[in-house]
Amino acid sequence: MDERVEAILRENLGDAGFDLVSRMMDEMENSSGSNMKDRIRKMVEVAADEEGVQAGKHRTVQRVQLQG
Amino acid sequence: MRKEFRLESIELYNVFNYRGKNSINFSTEGDGNVFLFNIKNGGGKTSLFLGIKWGFYGFESGMVYTKDGVQLKSKDFMNQDEFEEGRFYVKIRFEYDGEMMELRRECPNYQQERTVLTLKTRGIIERDELARTHVSQMIPPDYGDFFMFNGEVLQEIANNQKDRFKTEGVLKLMGLKQLDDLKGILVGIQRAMTNELSRSANSGGKMADLQTEVQRLDEKRERLIRKQEELSRKLDDLLKQIWDLEERRRSYGDIESTMDKLSLLRQKRGSLEATRDSERKNISQTSEDAYLLFIGDDIKDLRDRMKNRIGRMEADIGSIPRSKGEYLHIQKEILSRHLEACPVCRSILTDDILAGLDDIISSIDGRDAEYAEKVAELNGLKSERDLLVAAVSRIPERLGTSCDNLYDVSERIIETDEKINRIEDVLANSEMTAIKEITDNLRDLYREKSRVESAKFENEKLLANTEKNLNIRRRDLTAIAGTGKEHVAMARRLEYLSKLISKLEIIISSVSRSKRHDILARANDVFMSITNKPDVYRGLEYDRPDSFSMHIVMTDGKTVPHPSSGEKHVMAISFLVSLSLNTERLNPMMMDTPLSRLDPVHKANIGRTLASLDNQALFLAQPGEMDADTMRMFLPSVVKMYESRPSEGNQACIVEVDL
Question: Considering CB atoms only, which of B133, B182, B507 is closest to A25?
């Protein structure tokens, strides 16, 4: 990937987001068709769930801190 | 940090007319990077170009190889004297990012269209699919499209042909096309997730309405995207048609300038005819008095003498006293009444006084008669004088000049008519109808082009608006969806995906703008270093916001309307060099006969520009492009030179020669 493109992706998406996009682009390059789309969708769902979990943990920590 | 790809050597075996092994060594002691192949026509230059390109890309990458307009297959690459052996290969030794590697692409049997690819790195050999993946990462096919070019490709870029292909190719080279494709896939997934979400939610009027609205907007978006593509294709076709017609019109260039000349001559004739008519009118109005021209001097002389005589007579007449005569007549009247004393002045009137008065009166009466005669004569002279003055004023002094002018103008009209007739004869024999037709067609095409560009612009705005509304509706749909656990998870995923898509759109737009700016800036630098008119031209600008096609701008800001073929080639080379500088790669460039349309100054400047790059540049030229002067100017940029020497039959071999 072009270094400038990589830098801008990281800046806008964060490391996790950049990592996700890189994996999706690798998937695009190495496979095709509905299998490829299903795999990419799975990556998105996992990333979204992971972000939800992290957000949930963050809220729990905040609640505990407030209560404390 | 740019990854460097440096060629060490290339070996061709039985490729085209290169029978057996032909090796080219690229290792050098210094930093030079321009490798010149000086090969005469028919000496295997294009074969060498295609053979090397095939070595890099083969057939599997989708690369197409053509020679004289014909697409080549394996059998075309096979050396004709070695059909019995049936195999050919290209072996490339190179250093990539500090690692020495060897790529070997072989066709074991030219009749089967199958090739074997191996890549050796640090003693480890990768084959086929793995090797292909690795090789395409180092040398992407898009790179070959742009940086291994011949005169035909240069011509296409120079004439802004296949503009969409070029734009997409550049975006792919920058890594943006892949991001755009990914965004497209994610949008498809987003649509599917939205539909699933709405199906799983509580059905209600509002939900159903939103769902319908989302579907409607989605369909509208698809239609607008298809319309955009259709308009782009249409615009490409129009540009190609315009280019073809402009080329044809330029071939009639002489006729156009001749027509301009004819138009000017006709205007001149019109002006001369107006002058002629004016002079004719002058002559007609004054010709009755033309005879006065012949006696004019005499009349003037007579007038002047008359004036003098009148002056003298007036002086004479003025000296005659008048009032005393009237007084004496009154005296005599008084005396004739036999008065001895005047009742007025009391004078005593004697006979002597009376006699004296008579004498005086008769002398005065004589003078009065003389006076009256002289006055009458004077009046006569004055009448004659007035006639002469009137005659003088009627002398048509300008008549002679008018006649001369009329003669001159008539001569010039005849000359002009002869010139007009000669040009009309020439034009009558040429394809006037054709050029008129071309001009009319071009006018219609330009009009249509404007219309399509406007339609595209409006469509883009509509598409952006539709996408914005679609995102809003999708968010609304997510918001009013039900609160089931699975449903919540789906909604959260959909929201995550929507945000990701938005960010990708921003990134693609931002990088695209930035890259376009950088490409233009470097293209300008390169163009100004190559052009032979650095004082006349300011640089290059893009034709349109969505294209990488460029035009030349002069120092006063105006666009150069019809750059020459050579200047277009310089533009194309500037664009390609800039593109190379804006990728993250230092891959070698290869050019086949790129200089044929350029003058020696341009050629030398291109040599210097290539020498200033960090990439290796393989320059395949035929001697016609490189005359003695050009060679002299070009050679300082060259680090190694090769020639193709004929061997048995129609075969050739590459040899390195001294600079």
Answer: B182
